[in-house]
User: What shape does this take?
Amino acid sequence: MSKNTPQAIRGTQDIFGADAEAFAFVVETFERVRKLYRFRRVEMPVFEKTEVFSRAIGETTDVVSKEMYSFEDRGGESLTLRPEFTAGIARAFLTNGWQQHAPLKVATHGPLFRYERPQKGRYRQFHQIDAEIIGAAEPQADVELLAMADQVIRELGIQGVTLHLNTLGDGETRSAWRAALIDYFGVVKGELSEDSQERLEKNPLRILDSKDPRDRKFVADAPKIDTFLSDEAQAFFEAVTNGLDAAGVKWVRAESLVRGLDYYRHTAFEFIPDEGSEAASKLGSQSTILGGGRYDGLMESLGGAPTPAVGWAAGIERLAMLVGGPEVSFDPTPVLAVIPDSPSMRAEADRIAAHLRSLSSGDYYIWSAFKQHGRKLADKAKNDGVDAILFVRDVPDVDDRLHLTNVSAPSEEAMREMFYVLARLPAPYRALSGEN
RNA sequence: GCGAUCGUAGCUCAGUUGGUUAGAGCGCCGGUUUGUGGUACCGGAGGUCGCGGGUUCGAACCCCGUCGAUCGCCCCA
Assistant: This one.
């Protein structure tokens, strides 16, 4: 690499090859499932006014206080590259009058930006798939949203991942619980880890899932959310769990699952790889694959009318790490290479390739390359994983012009399939010779 | 923001206690090969050893700094 070539920005990725295939597979699967559940597609701006995020997510959260890519535009306005989807979608809901469509089910995917130290499964520009139900207070909305998340993960073929579920109660429940936790941990503050002493000020709920053994011994006897739950909040959570059972979505209760952002109420959840599973080892130290919850207070923080809503987002890179390695093929469609035997047959081969492409209904793909011919090109095609090769020979007899060789599946059936493809060619290409 | 490990060809990596002209495989380019299915054969190009400084007769190798990568902490998807 020349020292004169600029390098990529830290924490960004140039996704290529098998990784890019896995990425596309995740997005395509999500699109299919989202249509199945009739979530409407939305496209959102990649940047917003900074206050959209600072007001919605909460000034004291790590995301807002130290992880945002914020900058002034030429008019002196503070803008921010979106660190998540929910705040922007909430803003759009309010500014575009989407109330008229409530309850509104929307889905999107795209890049997000967080100024963090990159590591496995975590980047400064990363990508999420996202689903939201806005304007529905019913626990059935939570259930459907979670069933959809569960289906996405299953259709991706991901094993060993479990839904961890908790309730944070309503606003009053959450503040009462928070106050009790501050009291409880405040007494033993000196014995807590340095991180948790700080968390006591900023986000006491987070002490509950600290990994530090100094904190862990106090966590077991910490005040439980269930004691503070109002009757309504309790009933809501039960309705959600009953609905999940009815829908056949497996879940476990995770009492210490709190989510980092201020806007969560009631349902909070994460899909997490099971301890010791293959999925867990593929993810490195990242554990959450998909996370979300109910955010009934968010619209008000943006100056809108109280509007109940639930949503989730999942990291595409993290999902892609779990859907298989280079050996996994995401598309079984057969690939036919069209190869000129000699330079003189180049134009003829190109014509045949063009014919075959225009005749394809997506049941096969045509491979071609722009230089070389004969054996050398055939070797390249095989390396690229083509299933069959059609040689275009320079012979006087048109009937001998096309020669088919099956590469990947030596079965007669596969060979017949390829002959069937070639049968669609117009004259004078009808005849051909080949093996099997 | 903190810590650990690592930067040699396009890629993956060798490179002895510091010692002549820094190597291999793959890929790439050219030639031969008319093709049985990720193993044909011959030849070739390609590297200021991340960058800067220092030690030394001599540095890819030792020291300092810097940038980057990887992994972990924090936090999150």
